[in-house]
Amino acid sequence: MGGAEQARTYHHGDLRAALLAEAGLLLEQEGVDAVTFRGLARRLGVSHAAPGYHFADREDLLLELGTHGHVLLAEAMQSRLDEGVDEPLVAIGKGYLDFAMSQPQHFRLMFAGVAGMNAGAHPAFAQAGSRSAAMLVTTATGSVDPAHDPARWLKAWALVHGLATLWNDGGLSEGFTVLGGQAAFRSIADSILADAFPARRRR
Predict the structure, then answer these.
(1) pLDDT (tens digit per residue) in 54-75
(2) Cα–Cα distance, 187 to 184 (Å, whole number)
(3) Taking the domains of the chain in order of start, what are their residue ranges?
(4) What does the pLDDT look like over 74-121, one tens digit per residue?
(5) SS3 state of residue 147
(6) Ramachandran assignment for 149, one of left (phi > 0), alpha (psi -120 to 50 degrees), beta (any other)
């Protein structure tokens, strides 16, 4: 895309979306440290100052990426629920792993990566995170109130988040190579979820 066309895109207000899309790609390809205003501007062929017109600073951009990640996480969990195949809490867990294992850098950013950032000053991030968490809480307890049976939803979250983190950051990706790699790990993880949250008997 030539410089003139990029300029037209910017004036039409599409540069923000282009920056977010490119930042998401760069995040997964090279990690969070590679996501910089200067690097994004260079990749998109716009001025180095252009990203600053759409994001207050790099942290603002990263929190927007984290916001989108929580939206994708909620969609992945809902997709598994909509299949209607598994016990709902198992479905939620599988959707959680679907997202975490397919987009590990987004997953890291959304949780450990925002440590030290002023996430509280970014309402969209807080809202998106609350929505994805509420899906798990509601499915686990049947209530939107996290004070209702916190042990059950915390058990579910700790289990599935732990499995995702072990795969993404715990070195299991290498250890499972001889056992079949990611497919083998995922099969075992799904089995663990099914054992932990068996279907409830209907009264």
Answers:
(1) 999 999 999 999 999 999 999 9
(2) 5
(3) 3-53, 58-196
(4) 999 999 999 999 999 999 999 999 999 999 999 999 999 988 888 888
(5) coil
(6) left
The first and second tokens of residue 184, run together, are 């083998």
Span 3-53: which CATH code?
A: 1.10.10
Domain 58-196, second-level architecture = Orthogonal Bundle (1.10)
Report the distance separating Cα 119 and Cα 39, nearest Å: 23
Backbone angles phi, psi at 198, to 5 degrees: -65, 160
Alpha carbon distance 130, 119 (integer Å)? 12
What are the structure tokens assigned to 127, written together?
């809202």
DSSP character string of 60-114:
HHHHHHHHHHHHHHHHHHHHHHHHT-S-HHHHHHHHHHHHHHHSHHHHHHHTGGG
Instruction: Give the burial class of 39: count Cβ atoms within 10 A of its Cβ; 0-12 exposed, 13-18 middle, 19 or more buried.
Output: middle
Handedness of CA 4, 8, 9, 13 (dihedral sign): positive
